[in-house]
User: Which sequence fits this backbone?
């Protein structure tokens, strides 16, 4: 029966060397490309908070104007009538 | 920080990102991290002063300094990752991934151990992730002639042996493959394997035992005798 001696194979495989490479330029290029996406990342929750609060403020402003128009007009009418009567 | 001068064309970057800018928390802690990255008395012997200087400059956004760090360690990282992928293109991408990840967490390096050890941990994580994402071949994917080549001490050429061993281990699940690669192919001790993987010593021992058992079963299923 044939035998596989793993220790011998591992020891021989350990002698194998990878091809030489220089990745410095590529790594720096990747870091530079990643910058806009990454640099925005920490501010993303603040952007969402800003958007949400702006939308809420706009809704409140619209509701206030509508409420003023519906509830304020009769008061204005009465005050106008009083001023005419006086 | 703006890199003002560079000899390499790819390093002539107008505004290179400093790691402190990449994360708001890092920005607040940068000063503390810089101080922490400076050597303690016990670490002075282990960490080269030039390396510390380059790392501090890299933390301030100096691309030339980080290029020097990469060139100093890329052969070591490349050798480690050659065990994880033997496809030259994938291998080069993995080496790049290690240095990108290292840069993004460079502010957390504490200078308590050589940078090479820290990079080896990142390389192991990157390589392991690569295996988990890749499709695992079936045991039958290794042709019979490959098994014959492995028998009786295998071929004389280390590259051919490494290729066959790589294909044999690829059949195993990633955790088994990782522990066998580190313990036997890299020749790491239990402590070193635990350090590289982040596992406890007990987990490393149990995982090694299981992986050896699976490998032996795999070999014996092919009608061969195994010696491990």
Assistant:
């Amino acid at each position: 029966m044939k035998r596989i001696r793993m220790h011998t194979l591992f020891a021989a495989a350990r002698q194998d060397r990878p091809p030489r490479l220089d990745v410095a330029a590529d790594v720096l290029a990747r870091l530079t490309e990643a910058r806009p996406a990454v640099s925005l990342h920490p501010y993303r929750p603040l952007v969402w908070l800003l958007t949400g609060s702006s939308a809420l403020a706009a809704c409140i402003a619209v509701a206030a104007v509508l409420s003023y128009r519906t509830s304020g007009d009769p008061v204005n009418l009465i005050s106008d009538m009083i001023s005419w009567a006086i | 920080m703006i890199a003002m001068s560079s000899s390499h064309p790819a390093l002539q970057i107008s505004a290179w990102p400093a790691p402190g800018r990449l994360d708001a928390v890092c920005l607040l802690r940068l000063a503390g991290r810089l101080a922490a990255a400076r050597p303690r008395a016990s670490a002075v012997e282990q960490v080269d002063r030039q390396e510390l200087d380059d790392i501090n400059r890299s933390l301030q956004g100096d691309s030339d300094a980080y290029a020097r760090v990469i060139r100093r360690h890329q052969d070591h990282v490349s050798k480690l990752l050659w065990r994880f992928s033997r496809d030259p293109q994938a291998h080069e991408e993995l080496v790049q991934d290690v240095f990108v990840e290292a840069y993004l967490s460079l502010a957390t390096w504490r200078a308590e151990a050589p940078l090479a050890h820290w990079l080896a941990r990142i390389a192991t994580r990157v390589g392991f992730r690569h295996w988990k994402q890749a499709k695992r071949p079936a045991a039958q994917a290794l042709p019979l002639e490959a098994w014959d080549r492995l028998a009786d001490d295998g071929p004389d050429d280390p590259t051919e042996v490494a290729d066959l061993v790589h294909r044999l281990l690829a059949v195993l699940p990633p955790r088994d493959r990782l522990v066998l690669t580190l313990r036997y192919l890299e020749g790491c001790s239990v402590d070193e394997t635990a350090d590289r993987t982040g596992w406890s010593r007990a987990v490393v021992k149990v995982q090694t035992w299981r992986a050896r058992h699976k490998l032996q079963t795999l070999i014996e299923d092919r009608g061969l005798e195994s010696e491990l």
Observations:
- Chain A is about 80% helix and 5% strand.
- The longest strand of chain A covers residues 3-5.
